[in-house]
Amino acid sequence: MTKEVKQLSIVGLLGILFVSLLQGSNTFLSPGIAAIAAALNMDPGTVALVGTVPGIFSVLAGLLAGRFVGKAIKYKTFLVLALAIYIIGGSAPVLFPTWPVILFSRVCVGLGVGTFFALAPALIMKSYTGDAQQKKLGLASVFGAAGGFTMMLAAGALADIQWNFIFLIFTFGAVAFLLIVTGLKEPQPEAAEIASPDKKVKAKLPTPVKLNYLLMFVVTLFGMCAMVFISTVVVSRGFGTSVHAGMVAVMFNIAGITYSFLFASLHKLLKKYLAIAILVSVNIGLMLVYSASSLVMVGVGMFFVGAYLLIIPTLLSDNARYLTPSMITFAASLVGVSLNLGNFALGFYIQLATTLGGNVLSPLFFAIIGLAITTVIFFFIRMAQKEPELQSAL
């Protein structure tokens, strides 16, 4: 246990967990897209573009957090500022329900999400080691998965009351804000970091860590196709309506919560091959969704795809074996950056795959092939990887 562990109070840990709950905020507006478009007399396709805006700024925020936090600015200060921007900017359309303000809101949410992905896991990794670290990362993943569907359900209910009330969902960040302000203490730098702070920036990331960023990007790009096309599969094949599609989509989050509770045990059992098991599970899910002959089959498929929600704690734990304490924050931020780049590239991939395949579900078919190839490649990479000579001091 490090010095930081002794300083991490229950309130501070709860603050980090509630920050993790907000990590899915880029998609919280999804249930209200139609209502927003109708209220503003705009094309739903144009309004749907608000889903891509946060991703760009999430990447920017993640890079800034990784580069400057713990160096030019304190962890707590950066996180508090990000939460304030997220809460105030994100909820601004409640009072000023105009298109420009909505776009501004999405920028603020994106900046917040990028920070949350970077700092929440970094603070956990700087405060715990071994099984305790994996249990806390798994718990953070539980909060992230639970937040994904509870917040979207709440957002849908708010939109039904009045379309711009959906933006009230971002005021829930006030809970995390209060917990962080009152309970989180600034992590103390390691002795090596104090002696040579420049090494935090100049240190090179090991090749296995860089490969994990590529893996994060690819599994997001292909795996999230299931979420994009689930309503198309359900409705076009006569399994039900959009309501039924929403019901089976929830299986993704239920699976994420279930897997996350088991993360520490799974990591101990499978070690470096846990990422491969996740890829296999996601691909099985994609195949079930694509070839589904019933609504139940779609739901089972989405449960398998839900293993995707374990990929972040898995790669963070894997990366930690190769990193010095001074590299933890920067390396953790790039996991979130890779994820957001994958989400941003998804739209372009769907357009390209649809054109090449000539079918609305072609992107899902190509995703199965792409993820299968990725699984084989990374299986051999994992086999070739030796235990790192450099172990994190955490």
Describe this structure as you would to a colleague:
This protein is globular. The protein is an all-alpha fold. Helix 5 (53-68) packs parallel to helix 7. The protein is 73% helix and 0% strand. It folds into two domains: 1-186, MFS general substrate transporter like domains (Growth Hormone, Chain: A, Up-down Bundle), CATH 1.20.1250.20; 197-386, Growth Hormone, Chain: A (Up-down Bundle).
Keywords:
mainly alpha; globular; Growth Hormone, Chain: A; disordered C terminus; 394 residues; disordered N terminus; 73% helix
List the helices and strands and how they pair.
Blueprint (H helix, E strand, L loop, with lengths): L2 H5 L2 H12 L11 H8 L3 H5 L4 H16 L6 H16 L8 H27 L4 H32 L11 H11 L7 H5 L3 H4 L4 H17 L1 H12 L5 H20 L1 H8 L3 H17 L4 H11 L5 H10 L7 H30 L4 H23 L10
Please provide a brief summary of the model:
This protein has helices at residues 3-7, 10-21, 33-40, 44-48, 53-68, 75-90, 99-125, 130-161, 173-183, 191-195, 199-202, 207-223, 225-236, 242-261, 263-270, 274-290, 295-305, 311-320, 328-357, 362-384.
